[in-house]
């Protein structure tokens, strides 16, 4: 007859097996963990800034250009009642107030996940720097938006660069870079693809609803990516210097 083995006894007392270890806090993904990304961060930031400056120079030559006009005219032919409603809601879902909520939720999650406040130095700084940079450049370039006649939403500021595109690109890039240490390779690929599609879709929505030219959007996406990568690179550099001191 089979018997279930009993736990060993010591001095007549049952000895309990060791308890399973409790969950430990997630390791803090210090910026030094991005060491393998350092060169790529520098390249991405430089590429983004070069693309942005190119769009700026294009607009400096003329407030409108054949490419912008062609894309804008084409976007008018794509309009349907369903798409109008969809893109109007989508683009306003990334206005300043909703975006602020998304940033605060992401900050709370990452601080909880990593048991560290270091995301404040990446996500927080990036999402403050991006809109401030956009406001400064908008007033320097002073580019008018497309005609009021075809706008589906109202905007009062200047056109270049697209603030929605800049902020969304900066937010998506920073989400990816902040989540990077905690993800598997498959997770990184999936998140990068999803966030990339989101940023491009929001950028396209600004053209569709008639408040931006194509070069505004391309310049904004490039600027947002550049700012996010530059902030992460700066945080990494500061961290490594602190480790050496």
From TrEMBL:
Coiled coil: none annotated. It holds the Pfam family PAP2. Residues 1-32 are annotated as: Disordered. It comes from the Bacteria. Keywords: Membrane, Transmembrane, Transmembrane helix. InterPro entries: PAP2/HPO, PAP2/HPO_sf. This is Phosphatase PAP2 family protein. Residues 118-232 form the Phosphatidic acid phosphatase type 2/haloperoxidase domain. It comes from Candidatus Rothia avistercoris. The keyword Aminoacyl-tRNA synthetase does not apply. Residues 18-30 have a biased composition (Pro residues). The keyword Cytoplasm does not apply. The chain crosses the membrane at residues 41-58, 85-111, 118-141, 161-183, 190-211, 217-239.
């Amino acid at each position: 007859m089979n018997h279930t083995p009993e736990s060993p006894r010591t001095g007549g007392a049952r000895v309990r097996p060791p308890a399973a270890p409790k969950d430990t806090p997630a390791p803090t993904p210090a910026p030094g963990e991005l060491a393998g990304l350092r060169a790529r961060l520098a390249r991405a930031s430089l590429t983004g800034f070069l693309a942005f400056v190119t769009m700026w120079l294009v607009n400096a030559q003329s407030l409108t250009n054949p490419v912008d006009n062609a894309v804008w005219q084409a976007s008018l032919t794509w309009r349907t009642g369903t798409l109008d409603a969809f893109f109007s809601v989508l683009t306003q879902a990334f206005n300043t107030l909703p975006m602020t909520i998304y940033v605060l939720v992401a900050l709370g999650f990452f601080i909880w996940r990593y048991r560290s406040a270091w995301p404040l130095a990446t996500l927080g700084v990036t999402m403050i720097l991006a809109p401030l940079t956009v406001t400064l450049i908008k007033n320097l370039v002073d580019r008018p938006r497309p005609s009021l006649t075809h706008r589906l939403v109202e905007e009062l500021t200047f056109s270049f660069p697209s603030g929605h595109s800049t902020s969304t690109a900066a937010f998506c890039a920073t989400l990816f870079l902040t989540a990077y240490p905690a993800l598997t390779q498959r997770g990184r690929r999936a998140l990068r693809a999803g966030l990339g599609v989101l940023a491009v879709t929001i950028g396209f929505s600004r053209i569709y609803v008639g408040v931006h030219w194509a070069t505004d959007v391309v310049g904004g996406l490039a600027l947002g990516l550049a700012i996010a990568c530059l902030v992460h690179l700066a945080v990494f550099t500061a961290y490594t210097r602190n480790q050496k001191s």
